[in-house]
């Protein structure tokens, strides 16, 4: 292979050369720089402390090639034979920056049981099942990324425990069942993103799955996001349908289902309306997941949000409003009406 070395810790990979060979040979602390161009084949990061840097979204592009074997655990909610673009398992202090991952049958990036992962300026484009999928991991940052066109979520945090300190910020998520999905994960921050053209823009869900870890969604922050025009319909019965096997969802901006101590603050939620059947007929929804093996929503707060121009309701609270906090919101239509009047005594 004709890779050139700029320094002891920096390796350059030209178009047509093997990125996996560079990853396999890398020592901790190595920076692997990918030139502008298209690179074929799925990648496994097997050394902690490496940085994989492209020339920028749309300039360095990773696409499927001959499938390479991987020891990464199977991707959740996917057939066993799917291939993810970049996979990491039990890795620490890995950064992936400045590239597009396109057209894989699994996820664009799949991180399982990792700590200290940073995805910056990464685009997931049309990866079949998930976009950027983080599972059972901690201290993960997704910054200034784009994710579109996946069956489930553009960005997902699944079973990340309390204290995991996961963050998605400055990112754009579109054309998926869920833009950002917080699935049985706690202490996740969803801040300053743009979610549009999904079935649900941002979904936080505590639900029990057969054979899965115990879950919960606690102590999360959803703040300063633009959540607009989410009109797709998800939850079909066919395996390839958007959001397959889930309940019908459409027209949802932000939903917190079975959550505890989630703060929804300073978001702008407009023009979300269903195009099909939905179990959540509101743009901002607080509801229980007890019927799905989860829990009632309690001690959540909606503050300083502008929620207008949505259908059929701007806000729908299907749990006891007295167990939540509502302050200083601008809400067009809601059920029940005048939600700010339902704030617990002493909080207004």
TrEMBL record:
Entries under InterPro entries matching the protein: Beta_helix, PbH1, Pectin_lyas_fold, Pectin_lyase_fold/virulence
Top-level division of the source organism's lineage: Bacteria
Transmembrane segments: none
Domain annotation Right handed beta helix: ranges: 85-268
Name of the molecule in the record: Nitrous oxidase accessory protein NosD
């Amino acid at each position: 292979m004709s890779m050139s070395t700029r320094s002891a810790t920096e390796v350059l990979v030209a178009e047509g050369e093997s990125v996996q060979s560079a990853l396999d040979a890398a020592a901790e602390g190595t920076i692997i720089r990918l030139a502008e161009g298209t690179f074929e084949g799925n990648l496994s990061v097997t050394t902690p402390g490496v940085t994989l840097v492209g020339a920028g979204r749309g300039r360095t592009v990773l696409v499927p090639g001959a499938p390479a074997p991987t020891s990464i655990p199977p991707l959740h909610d996917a057939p066993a034979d799917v291939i993810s673009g970049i996979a990491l398992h039990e890795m620490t202090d890995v950064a992936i920056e400045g590239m597009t991952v396109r057209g894989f049958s699994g996820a664009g990036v799949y991180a399982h049981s990792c700590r200290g992962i940073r995805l910056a300026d990464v685009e997931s484009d049309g990866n079949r099942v998930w976009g950027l999928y983080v599972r059972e991991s901690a201290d993960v940052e997704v910054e200034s990324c784009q994710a579109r066109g996946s069956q489930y979520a553009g960005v997902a945090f699944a079973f990340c425990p309390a204290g995991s300190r996961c963050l998605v910020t400055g990112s754009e998520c579109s054309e998926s069942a869920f833009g950002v999905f917080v699935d049985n994960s706690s202490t996740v921050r969803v801040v300053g993103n743009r979610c549009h053209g999904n079935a649900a823009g941002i979904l936080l869900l505590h639900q029990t799955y057969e054979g899965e870890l115990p879950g919960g969604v606690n102590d999360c922050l959803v703040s300063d996001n633009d959540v607009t025009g989410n009109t797709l319909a998800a939850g079909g019965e066919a395996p390839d349908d958007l959001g397959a096997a889930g309940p019908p969802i459409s027209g949802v901006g932000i939903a917190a289902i079975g959550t505890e101590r989630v703060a929804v603050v300073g978001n702008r939620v407009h023009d979300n309306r269903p195009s099909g059947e939905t179990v959540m007929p509101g743009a901002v929804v607080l509801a229980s997941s007890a019927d799905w093996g989860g829990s009632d929503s309690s001690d959540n707060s909606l503050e300083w949000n502008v929620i207008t121009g949505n259908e059929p309701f701007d806000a729908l609270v299907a749990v006891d409003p007295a167990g939540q906090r509502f302050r200083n919101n601008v809400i067009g239509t809601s059920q029940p009406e005048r939600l700010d009047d339902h704030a617990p005594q002493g909080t207004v």
